[in-house]
Amino acid sequence: MIANQVQGPAIHVRGLEKSYKQLRVLRGVDFDVARGSIFALLGSNGAGKTTVVKILSTLLKADAGTASVGGFDVATQGPGVRESISLTGQFAAVDEILSGRENLVLVARLRRLKGPGALADDLLERFALADAASRKVSTYSGGMRRRLDIAMSLVGNPPVIFLDEPTSGLDPQARIEVWQAVRELVGRGATVLLTTQYLEEAEHLADRIAILHEGRIIVNGTLAELKLLHPPVKVEYARKQPTLEDIFLAIVGNDGKDDDAGDDRSVGANE
To answer: Residue 80, Cβ neighbours under 10 Å: how many?
Structure first.
């Protein structure tokens, strides 16, 4: 049913608005995410990235606007949306007492899938965790836990994956490991919406990048398209190409570092 439902973009968002009392968090957000791509939603702390993800994953209702995921309307077809997605939040939701394999088997059984052991073994192999399959998760490094967390969200092969700040708090090596895992997902046909405040992460992973600022998408394009917005700098006869950081700061300005810092804290999020 899910495969037949998806005809247009994997994610379609128009005019999304959300306020908490007098605080306007989203002021008319518009974007599409093509199937089989990585879309990075980039913004400062408190920009509203987690609020967008919560609305798209049916955990929160928008005040206005429309959105669909996998062809299902998030407001009226919640069960269809939830069957189409997985959501990995900012903190790894793994059971440290269990082994990596036991965590995966448990999720497969909760979802009433056939062959939970075989599913677990396949995911452990895909995410380079097979050698640590029988070890308790409490002995895993940060990068290993995060990879296991992403693997757990993939039990059942959902076509659309939300990764909300997936490398928050990880060291550089662990971040690279997670990046490799994300590329693996898209290589197998999944669609990924990635929220991040790390410019380098968006630059390395995303097919398209949207900058969320003051409740609106102010830029949306490929990295090459964004670079056209910020001309190269001449340095001793050489032309220096702008980085995504140059582009972000030129568009948003320094005020974006602390702007709307408290928006998502109203619902317990920590962007």
So the answer is: 20
Each residue's pLDDT tens digit, 127-178: 889 999 999 999 999 889 988 988 888 888 899 999 998 888 778 887 888 8
What are the structure tokens assigned to 218, written together?
Answer: 């102010």
Considering only 99-113, 180-194, 207-221, 243-257, which range has the smallest mean pLDDT? 243-257
Angle in degrees, 0-180, between the axes of helices 142-153 and 172-187, rounded to the nearest 10? 20
CATH number for the domain spanning 58: value is 3.40.50.300
Q: Where are the alpha helices (DSSP H) in 188-269?
A: 199-205, 223-227, 244-252
Query: Which residues constitute the domain of residue 173?
Result: 2-93+158-267
- Cβ-count burial 127-149 (b if 16+ within 10 Å, e if not): bebeebbeeebeebebbbbbbbb
Structural domain count of the chain: 1
Q: Closest by alpha carbon to 40, among 181, 218, 212, 271? A: 212
38 is a domain residue: yes
For the chain, the first-to-last Cα distance in angstroms comes to: 34
Residue with tokens 């209702």: 61
Identify whether 143 is part of a domain: no
